[in-house]
Amino acid sequence: MITVTEKIEKYISEKHNGRLDGAIGSSLGSSFVGQLVMRKNVHIDHAIFGSPDLDQSGPVSAKLQSMLVVPLLTSFTGSEKKRNKSKEKLKKIFEMDDENAEKFMNCFSKFNPRSIKNEYYTDLLTHLRDDINVEHTRAHFIYANKMGEKYLERYKKYFHDPDIREFNMQHEQWLFGGKEYAEPVLKAIDEFMVMTV
Last residue of a domain, which of 100, 119, 138? Predict the structure, then answer.
């Protein structure tokens, strides 16, 4: 996580003079946005977190979680039967239609399972401090309330006075759930970007 965060910081420093109007990350991407804000090596006016989990744990728990999650995320790379079974699970859990379940599976099928495991594992071990408060930076959260209130509490724990917008959806459903989920979230993101920091 830190190796990749350093590469992102280097890019922002070289290509954008170390400053961005806004950065958005969803799921694992949110962890990178959080690290960029917390480390303060570059500046972001609007840090936008798209329905993140921001999970953090110790090495044993991280290893167990990655061993459980990675097969779930990569099970559809096998036979057609496994692919169809995974598609039905995604449709049920995330309320996706066939088209968006296919998009989700195609996204993950491009990556090596070992890479997914390594990123998932190191994400759990790369902690955010509590009450991150950076001058002239505003933290905005897309809160998918079907994830549960513990995530809402987590956002408030890690960031000082975050701007939180609540949506009736699952984790990342705004990315894969179709227009009914995406359009309201994109509207909120537009609103975030014109707010005063």
Answer: 119
CATH number reported for the structural domain that contains residue 152 in this entry: 3.40.50.1820
Domain end position, chosen among 119, 145, 168: 119
Asked if residues 140 and 48 have their Cβ atoms less than 8 Å apart, the reply is: yes
Position 184: which residue type?
A: P
Domain residues for the domain of 41 are 2-56+127-193
pLDDT in tens, 110-150: 778 888 888 889 999 999 999 999 999 999 999 999 999 99
> How far is it, in rounded angstroms, from Cα 7 to Cα 95?
35
How far from the centroid of its chain's Cα atoms is residue 170's Cα?
12
Give the model confidence (pLDDT) of 60-75 as tens digits: 999 998 888 777 777 6
Q: Give CA separation, 118 vs 89, 140, 152, in Å.
A: 24, 27, 26
How many independent structural domains does the chain possess?
Answer: 2
CB 44 within 8 A of CB 20: yes
Q: What is the length of the chain?
A: 197
